[in-house]
């Protein structure tokens, strides 16, 4: 089992679905987890689950569409736990289910602010903190020599939650698909910019996964459910826990050569 003992993991949108499953999985693997959520009730519920199972977690109210709230959330993380090792930028919205011509400027702007701006400003704040920590470790002399697996100083890990809609078109979801393509662009670019600082940055691209988001999509278009399932060669939706396990693997200490990649978790959808 992968261990994250004593490490600090920051997860956005951790009050529900994939974010909650990821927060619980990190806590189960020994990490101290920061639950950054716009919905205080669901965020505190996740923290409650972690405490009940003996883990350590902190709730931080945060709307990822607001850069000032993101900076404050990272600061609160460092004030409480002293550092940031892992960041999972998961918070996202699905937007309006409708044709290209039906999408309004408000639909487009909100989805871009949350799904793209949220990931961009989160990564900015997280990378700044990870770089600061490296200066600290260098000053203490704990550089690559103390870790023979690394050719660079010990850095951080970031995973952005994109989507299969970030690698292919999604009819009736143009702003969503555009936002997830952008997340992949941000992931690859940041991974290249910070490769020498050993901050590994990857994205996961799930296909339909059981969560409030998919429930919302199905209630907007109930006739779609069957077709959505049939699109996936495995014949079922993913489970949030399956996505969480992949995210943990991406963040593992000994997973040292994997960066700038998109990992498709799609029941075979993009294999065809
Ligand atoms: N469920 C799927 O089929 C699927 C597939 C591909 C990608 N994704 C992506 O996975 C991520 C998680 O989605 P989910 O399916 O678990 O949905 P979900 O609706 O269950 O969870 C999303 C969480 O993000 C939070 N959130 C929304 N806006 C926020 C904001 N502005 N600031 C902070 N938190 C905010 C919500 O309160 C909620 O807790 C999203 O980025 C989504 O686009 C989901």
From TrEMBL:
Keywords: Oxidoreductase
CDD domains in the cross-refs: SDR_c
Origin: domain of life: Bacteria
Pfam families given in the database record: adh_short_C2
InterPro entries the record matches: NAD(P)-bd_dom_sf, Sc_DH/Rdtase_CS, SDR_fam
Keyword Disulfide bond applies: no
A molecular-function term among this protein's GO annotations: oxidoreductase activity
Family label: Belongs to the short-chain dehydrogenases/reductases (SDR) family.
Protein name, as recorded: Short-chain dehydrogenase/reductase SDR
Species per Swiss-Prot/TrEMBL record: Spirosoma linguale (strain ATCC 33905 / DSM 74 / LMG 10896 / Claus 1)
